[in-house]
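Re: folding output
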Amino acid sequence: MTRETGRIEAFSDGIFSIAATLLVLDLKPPAATIPFWQGVVNQWPGYASFLLSFLLIGIMWINHHRLFSHITHSDDALMAANLLLLLGVVWIPYPTSLMAQALVTERFREAAILYNGSYLVLALLFNVLFFTCTSRGLVDKKSTGARVTGKRYLLGIVVYALCFALTWWNVPLSLAVNAGMALFFLLAPCRSEK
């Protein structure tokens, strides 16, 4: 972290952590009209949404950190592109919550469309941030790490677009591919690519 990007990273870290912390507010106590443990078990979609959103926000934070390790200085365009990305980050818990609630309803496909569409937009926003950095000379274009990051982000657009298209054909498959992308972005790039 450079002094010049430090405030951007600190602000971003704050947004990531607030977004992750606020997820717990969706978890409510079980209704008093049913047995306690039955009420707790009946809320499993909310717990699934909480865990999934927390993990996905964490993975996005890791990738944001990896990108900023290649940024040497900042400008107004970087701050604007970063702010757009953070808007996408704080949006993600909403479609995730809708997905969890729709798992056992007839609205499953519609919720999956919003969910996969949200990740496609987020992939686009990560690419906008990366393009802003490279086009404005904020990263060393010759850096292998920066090139690998760019390739991974471009792959993200392609695969998330595939997930979005798959939703009309096979929702579980689209969600499985989406989960595979989360694992892909969780894993660090190969050392040989750094």
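--- second protein (sequence, then structure) ---
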Amino acid sequence: MRTTLLRNTVLTAAGFAATTAGIAGPAIAAHAAPAQKTTQVSTDRKGHGERELDVRYEAQPNFYYCGPAATRNALSVLGKNIDVDAMAKEMGTTENGTNSINDITPVLNKETGKHYRSVEIKNSNADDKQTDTLRTDIVRTIDDGRAVVANIAGTTTDTDGNTHSFEGGHYISVVGYRDNGHTVTIADSANPNTASYHISIDNLADWIATRGYSAS
């Protein structure tokens, strides 16, 4: 696994399947079935200190399209349905993946007409200030009706105790929060069997560490 800041090193097809071994259900095949591509991830406003956006979820069609797929899922909360091949071309995605969050931020700006910025977490583990900044950024972006896209790497545990492991790197969308942002909702294109899960902001910040995210 490369440790270059914000780098998304993508696994081989075999390695991609191996990263999902800790997730319930099989790794996504090269092409998801149509029924899997229309899974609804979340609903709209819940109440004070809690909000989730309505995601028209699609799984990624291959092992290296996580960047375009995460961006497509993020944009779907605005009712947009942009072809992942077109986004992959714009991001410079290859079988080596999408290079960094800096390749995704311009696409979000273009497609939303609103300001997104790339935020780096340079440490190997996020400190309290970086974690709090992430929480604030997520709440602000989601309250504006938009999703966050994050470049993550390594292994984490969700609030149900399930493990999610992407040692070679991955992109996810953050589409909701509760408890004033101390817990967030993930839309994950890797596996339609685990399209949505919740994770603590502390675990998410450490998952992003050495890489970055795109938020308002």
